[in-house]
Structure formats: C-alpha cells, structure tokens
Write a structure and sequence with these properties.
single chain, 353 residues, mainly alpha
Length: 353
C-alpha cells in the first residue's frame, strides 16, 4: 500500500475540481481496489471516508466502474457499498446482485424504496433469504416475482409459496416457474392442477409421478367443492342454448372447421355469458373448465371433444379420440352432471362479472 495514493485522493476530495474519468478510475484502482489487494481496517475506513466525499460528484461511468470493482469484495467500505446500492440502476445493479457486504436489512430497504429494476437485481443474487424473498413478493410486481421464482438460490417460506400458488390461479406468469421449483410440494402442485393448462398438467404428472386419473380426480373434487360453496347458492340464471335460431354445436364446429377462431370465441362466450378476458384465462386453458362449460350449455360429448382437440392438440381428431388423454377427457365430460355444470357456470359468471 502506497500512502501517496491516499494523499492524492484526499487532495481530490478537498478540491473543487475532479480529474477526468479515466484518471480517477486509475487512482481508485491504485488505492488498493484491485482484486489482488487487501485492505486493513484503518485503510478501509480511510478509503471509505475519502470515496464517500467523492462519490456524489463523480460522473456515472466512474461510479459504474467503481461498483464493478467493489461488487464482489468482502473488504469494501460498508458506507460506500450502501451509497452505491442506492444509486441509479446502471450503477447499483452489480452491487445489488453480488455484494457480500449487503445484509438482509439493506436489501429489504432497497426493495422498499426503489422500483422494479432494483428489486429484480436483488432477486438474482446467488442466495436470497426468506425475509428478502418475502419483501420481493410484497412488491406485487409480477416481473419481480417471476425473476425470484426462476432463481434456484432463492429461499421461500412455506407461507410465501402457498400464497404464490394461490395467486397463480389468476396470474398465469407464475405457473411455469412455480412448477419448476424444487420447494413446490405435491399438495401445492395438485392445487395448481385445477387451473393450469394441459401441458403443465402433464408436467405435474411426470415430475411427481402422479397417476393421471388421480390428478383428474383432484380437479373434479375441486369442482365439487366449488359447487358446495356459497358462491353458487341462489343462482338460477340459465343460458340461451341457440343463437339466431341455430343449434350451438354445429355453429361452433362450423366456425372451428373454417378456421374462424374469432367467431368461435364470440359464439362460445355468448353462450356461456362470460367476458372474453375471463374465458381466455379459464375456459381455453383448461380442458376441465371447457368440459364443464360445454356440458352446461348443452353440447354433446363429440362436439366437446372436437373443440378440445382443436384448441389443445395438434393431432387429427381420430387420433385424439383414441389417445389416452382424449379418452380421459371424454370420460371426464361424461362424469359431469348437467345441473351441477350449470351451477358451476353460474358461479363463474358471478366471478367474471
């Protein structure tokens, strides 16, 4: 360690004029910020005091270079790291993502005081504690939460996981990263099976080695539980089963076979009397929900199967009918009582309203 480097920095800190960016970065590096240098306690304190005086006045490229040099050091001045962590994201990012100096309370404070990009940087740390994860989830920002869920080093408490599983019913972006997490247990996955699409449901079957029939039963039980809930009481609304004098089944199939998906969706949503956004998030992503709605509006099994094949499969209809998945879904359709399906659809209308 050469004393003149500190003396030069002291002089700059007390001066009204800064050197150009390149010279200042060089001087900071010479003052033992290079990776192969190690600071003693007194040197760390002195350097921190000097840099703290300089940092608010130097140009962003200098602050960026300094943040990069300090981001992985465990002997960097605490106060300086804190200042850099609160800087604009172009400066703060490497500090927030990598610095071992920052403690949970520091990270939580940054998440609470700053917007999305600072929180995303924190969510990508090599390890994220349960407390910090909770603060990130509390932002309510789906982009932050997805970034956190994609980080295998993030620790999430059972309470946080359960909350996110519940949120995934309405926030589709959470579903795939949740199902990919090692801390998602079978009970949570089975809950999600009620609202995820067919491809993610198949992922649940493969990852947890679940009997597909057991999974279908879990979804059916969830429907039966919903039927018994208060939301379906005192609902007597019945849909109109024809549009412009035509039977709904042929009209829907005509739209599909002529590749008029817009007409199909308008007709189906009109029959179910739900709005387009709700239908997109519920009916079209779940074969079970589609089966319930189809049964409620009076479609037969073949019409339901043809619609399901068109929306959820690339197979020709004969192959889909013969497939294990196609057989299961047609059996599921047959197991639904029309009056129960009507009660569920009435409740969905109330939810979608």
């Amino acid at each position: 360690m050469q004393t003149e480097h500190f003396e030069n920095l002291k002089a700059i800190a007390n001066s009204a004029q800064l050197p150009d960016s390149g010279d200042l970065v060089t001087m900071l590096g010479n003052a033992c910020l290079a990776p192969d240098r190690r600071l003693g306690q007194s040197e760390t304190t002195l350097l921190g005091d000097i840099l703290h005086q300089l940092i608010r006045d130097v140009e962003m490229p200098v602050r960026q270079a300094l943040a990069e040099q300090l981001s992985e050091r465990n002997d960097a001045p605490q106060d300086l790291i804190t200042v850099l962590a609160e800087d604009v994201i172009d400066v703060a990012y490497p500090i927030l993502q990598n610095s071992p100096i920052l403690q949970d309370q520091d990270l939580i404070g940054v998440v609470q005081r700053h917007a999305r990009q600072h929180a995303i940087a924190v969510s990508r740390r090599e390890t994220v504690s349960e407390a910090v994860s909770s603060a990130l989830v509390d932002t309510g920002d789906a982009n932050v939460v997805v970034s956190l869920l994609q980080n295998d080093g993030a620790q999430l408490s059972p309470e946080t996981m359960n909350s996110l599983v519940s949120d995934s019913e309405s926030i589709e972006a959470y579903r795939a990263p949740l199902l990919g997490r090692k801390d998602l247990d079978l009970d949570m996955a089975m809950r999600m099976a009620d609202w995820v699409g067919d491809s993610l449901r198949q992922y649940i079957v493969e990852r947890f080695n679940v009997d597909p029939q057991k999974l279908d039963k879990a979804v059916s039980d969830a429907v039966l539980e919903a039927i018994d809930s208060d939301i379906f009481e005192n609902k007597t609304h019945k849909p109109t089963l024809d549009i412009e004098g035509e039977e709904p089944g042929p009209r829907l199939l005509h739209a599909l076979t002529h590749d008029n998906l817009t007409l199909f969706k308008q007709t189906f949503e009109g029959l179910c009397e739900v709005n387009s956004e709700w239908a997109e998030n519920s009916l079209y992503c779940s074969g079970e929900a589609l089966a319930i709605a189809s049964r409620a509006i009076g479609l037969n099994q073949e019409t339901y199967a043809r619609i399901l094949c068109h929306l959820h499969s690339n197979e020709i209809f004969a192959d889909f009918q013969a497939s294990e998945h196609g057989q299961r879904m047609m059996q599921y359709f047959d197991s639904i009582q029309a009056d129960n399906a009507q009660r569920v659809l009435n409740g969905w209308r109330a939810t979608a309203a």
